[in-house]
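Notes continue from the previous slide.

Worked example: a multi-chain complex. Inputs as given:
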Amino acid sequence: MIQTMIKSNNYMDSVFLMKTGKAVGALDGVKKAVAVMGTDLNKTVLREFGALNAETEAAGTNDLIVAVDADEDVMAAVEECLAGLLNAKKPASGSTAQQYVSVEQAAAADPELNLAVISLPGDFAAYEGIKALKAGMHVFMFSDNVPLEDELEMKRIGREKGLLVMGPGAGTAIIDNISIGLMSKVRRKHIGIVAASGSGLQEVAMLVHNWGEGISQAIGTGGRDLSKEVGGSTMLMGMDILKNDPDTDVIVLISKPPHPDTMAKMFAAVKTMGKPVVIFFLGGKASDVEASGAYCAKTLEEAASMAVALARGETPEKGDYVASVCEELLPLAKAEAAKLTGGQKYLRGLFCGGTHSEEAVMLLQEMISDLYSNINFGHVTMMENRHVSTKNCLVDMGDEEFTVGKPHPVMDPSILNDRLVQEGSDPDTAILLFDLLLGYGVHEDPAGTIADSLRQIREKTEAEGRHICMIASICGTDLDPQDYQKQKKTLEDLGVIVLESNGRAALLSGLIAKEVQK
Amino acid sequence: MSEIIGKIKAINLGLEGFGDGLRGQGVSVDQIKWKPPINVGLLKKLDRLDPTIVEKIEAANKQAIANMLAAEPHWIGIKKAIDVVPGMKPNMILHSGPPNDWDHLISTQKKGVVGGALHAGLAKTKEEAIAMIKAGEIELGSCNDHFCVGAGAGIVTANMVVNVSKDLRTGLEGYCIPFEGRVGLGVWGVYNEEVERNLREIEDEFGPAVTMALEKFGPIDVRSIIARSMQMGDEIHTRQTAAGLILVSEIVPKLLDTGLPNKLINKCIAQFTATERWFHPLGMSGGMSIARSIKGIPYCTLVTSIAQNGVKTGIKVSHFGERWFTAPAPRFVGSYFSSEWGPEDAVPYMGDSTVTEVVGMGAFAAAAAPVVMRLRDGGYREAIAQSREMQQITYGINSNYPIPLLDFTGPGMGIDVRKVIETGITPICHGGIISKDGGQIGAGAARFPSDHYMAALEALIDDFSK
């Protein structure tokens, strides 16, 4: 039966809530559990759970709600479990370390503070961001769903005070050799990046590092920066910083095609840079870019490759980068395709990184037909039900429909587990493609998180006498806290083919699919 | 290498993983203990106030803090309410908290008002009293609207006496009835023959004797007693043990020198020593005289009153003078004197003793009185933490009261409605827990709601933007 408990005026952050949901769910006699603050959004979660009653309906944003589907007599145990978690949060007795409760308080106590990292709910993020900017701090804002007028206001203040406003919706950055957000650690050298895409920035930076070069500065702008309204405010400020940075020799710009007005401003700026510029406009037209004098990359990997060449004083290779990678991958694709004797045909991709899914769509739409996705991008058919794949299907697992009340898969790929098993169990699935991301702020063992599911798929398909191609990319470096080689080995031991970039993994998958769908 | 920021020093708001990631690279990160602001829409309006208005607010609030710091409340006597309380009328009975009509008074105050009518000789019987109240022949009023502090039920009639504390700098006075003891009319709304006899003694003998002593040998400096007692474990709302002892040492010599009969002087001394909380009304009336010095300052956003009637809590904000903003009265967390009592026996907060918090004492000065924190199973750490928390919502610090556990800085003083909404921290106030049947059954503290602070801020912004 569904039972609920409310702790009023007991605000806890989402990490605590998730920990609580997990711990309560693990109690004897509890089938499932959820812990949320009583926001309107979370009440929809409670409704689905069947736990919306007069009491929980009346709860407010500072009220902690625990709902369980459990035996009748468990509430005492739930209460005890919750008390344990709540009390664990208190600092050790005798601790006199002061914890600030507001931006103003922190800024007043410590005028040296110079960066605010904000991942609060969108309704509140900008309000705090503006306070941080007024106190002279640069802002890195992970939060989504920030009202446009708030972004405009933050960026106006940022320009006035010469402070960077990275985001809203920024996932990654490297400032002065410090990785910010969910970001890999890379060596410091002379390639600078400004990117409107978190996973795009990380992908290029990690490839640059893995190929022996390094990053001077990498500035995230947030996805909406290049809209008509925002006008590339952070992009242009970032370009200006890199232009004047004596340690930046090559500049890489990454985004979806900007609004034409914004694009015009960017191209005007490109012409004044006095340094080589590589541009990756996801799904954009090469002719536009090249007219500005910049190098046009067709994949994130190509952008990294061009930047590395330029940083070494070489000229990037001309020719079709995608075609040459495909040629390189073809023998492996044919060998894999040959193992697929079970009549399976389809490619299923599950993506943690948002730009990774878009890049995969962009590459695969040229290679295979019947392509479905939950992202509205390129020439795909939108999935009817995001929870059930159709034919060739690329699913962005960071979709809000999947992440309500759960961490984003970049932070913790746990939410891939059920879906991996679902796709792997589908007798139509020939190729299972996915990406993992490493770095600071990310789960300590992403590969370990999904290893059981991969093992289960492997055992099930073997028992049923068929092969399944599992292909992955790992976006990370040897400097990351997760141990790149160990992550790779975990996957390879389970028969996963691990490639060095998302683009490459998508292309290999496409080649195999093409073979079996002939 | 050239740098954008240099040595990064960060704050993190939200997911702790982001802070951990930076810390993993050796960056200093403060995790902000954030909770959702109670009203973002209102905060945005506040942010958009014209800078010239913000300047006026700052100037007004600075002036208010300066006034409070300069105030010098002195106890000048115990006098008939009708003679000293502004606006008091012979047929008027005051109660604590925001104004309330007869039908909505809680039973403790109803009993007290009826008892008051009998004590004042306005009616002969309870029935007659009720009929007169309903007919409007007996007028009800809010203590706070008359600069009187209604302790508990806050019953004050024209013939009752009040302690008068006067700010010698401004001449403004605050009033509060003297302590009647464990049972009484003013605080507990209890009226019977014994209470009547006691009241008569206070009004006819004790009051005049004290007034004579104070007038003859000079008033007693309330601020100086509080400053000393705060270094001796008092916070002046729930605990005034030290203040009471200092008071005895100051008033007794004066009484002895009056030349009054020894028997009367002994009776007076017994009043002071019978309860260690005798000083409480002086802290409250003194607090009121201080609060009056910041009333009606244009653009001032500081709270000048907090008062409860067991149904509602109300605040007044300087800019708006005597206008009330109300919300439901909060309930207490605390300890009960006996295991037979619990929260279900108590009424919501009743009484105006929260004037102590308005001027930076009581819960705001918790660090001065760790003993009081025992009521909520706390110790000196909780005491310090509570004082620090309350400093987040005050505009100033009361440097008149240096507290050892605050490194000899003072408690926060001058609750700024802007800060309450900005921080989402509402005031905590100490206080006595009062039974539904009248009488104190415990003590503790209550966390106040935010609704009326939001309403006040909204009204301020609207008024400023005109």
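Summary box: The longest helix of chain A spans residues 321-339. Chain A touches chain B through 65 residues (CB under 8 Å).
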